[in-house]
Amino acid sequence: MPPDGYHQRFARELRRFEGTWNAAATISPPTLSPDGQVASWRIDTRGPNWRVETDFRLLRWDDMVRRDGARPGWERLLFGFGAYRDFIVSGAALAYFRTNWRYGLFFAAPLVALAAFVAIALLADDFAIRLEPALTPILAAVVAPLVFAGLWVWPGGRLRLAYMIDDWIFANDFTHRRHRDMEERLDRFAEQLIRDARDGAYDEIVISGHSLGAAFLPAVVDRALRRDPRLASGGKPLNLMSTGSSLLKIGLHPAAGWLKSAVGRIADAPAVYWVEYQALVDVINFYKTDPVEALGLPNTGKPIVRRIHIRDMLDTATYRRFRGDFFRLHRQFVMGNDKRYFYDYYLVCCGPLPFETLVSAHERLTSLFDPDGVVDIKASMAFTPVPEPCVMGWGS
């Protein structure tokens, strides 16, 4: 989603946050960095006894997604076949099923859909030939491709099949570090992180990665830590939040040793505080899985894994409406809540409590706010320190 669209969605969901937590917020228009790769806006949020100013950074890669989405169907299918073949032959696909069978099914879904389309196209071809045997060569050359093309448009469009195949092509290129534009972009994001971390204006920095963005997160943070070792051990912590994570989508591939090493280094860095939120109803995350443990790395206590129930974040009618749309449920990690709950993306971005307090309070978090939005400061001190976050985030 380009910056203007993302900003509009952020503002819309911010209104939901205001109603849920009895807060008031204003949001500035988005501004772009000179190179256009980082969009920023400021949010001023107030409650009855608190105020927070947030600088939100959107680390952009929507241009790459749009470019991938513009390729012709034949090219997408060709590259998609190569990507899927690599994930299967390398053993990564088997590792998905072994680690989390539901994610394995998510991997297999486009393949099953394509196989079904081919089977239906061939059956239609056979049926047409039986009707007009004299036109066999012409029918064989025309009917099957036309039927397949029709199925690609519908139901393929409704299933977002092209988008899913693009996603796996991109993931394969990223795994093998063939996507030079993304490598350069991650370097740029690391520079932004270093600048913000050195800026004395912020009480707290939260680096957020959603979905495939959660695989970019350790790559960016590791680059920043290696370029400025002072970030690893000094001053304020670097707060990492991965949600609906597809880190293992990349990390479980044998060619992603470079990412596995980066994960190991940030998990071992004293200044890093890392939390991962997972949900059962989201099939695009590795539920009940510690990513560091799944990668065979030493246990450092990072990330802290928190399981959430999206049903408890939304009104009953809203949840019923979204229940059949697994992409929309996946996006709820970065949307506003209808109900007060211990995980709320906008409470992390714009709320008065430090990130560590939000995580430590866990299911007792909502008890720190009274119905009018007043925060019990004394009670919150039992969990930890500091407000005013600068939030950096990217999603899929």
Can you describe this structure?
The protein is of the alpha/beta class and 396 residues long. The protein has two domains: 3-61 and 178-394, no CATH class; 71-168, no CATH class. The protein has 18 helices and nine strands. It has helices spanning 3-21, 62-69, 73-89, 92-99, 101-131, 136-153, 161-175, 180-198, 213-227, 230-233, 247-251, 257-268, 291-294, 316-322, 326-331, 345-350, 355-361, 377-380; strands spanning 24-27, 31-32, 38-47, 50-59, 204-210, 238-243, 272-279, 304-308, 389-394. The radius of gyration is 23 Å and the shape is globular.
Task: List descriptors.
alpha/beta; 9-stranded mixed sheet; 18 helices; 52% helix
Low-confidence stretches: none
- In one word, what is the shape? globular
- The total strand number stands at 9
C-alpha end-to-end distance: 9 Å
Roughly what fraction of the amino acids lie in strands? Answer: 5-15%
Number of domains: 2
| Number of alpha- plus pi-helical segments | 18
Q: Assign a percent range to the helix content.
A: 40-55%
Structural class: alpha/beta
Q: How do the SSEs run, as a string of H and E?
A: HEEEEHHHHHHHEHHEHHEHEHHHHHE
Rounded mean pLDDT score: 94
Q: Using only CA atoms, what is the Rg?
A: 23 Å
Largest sheet: 9 strands, mixed
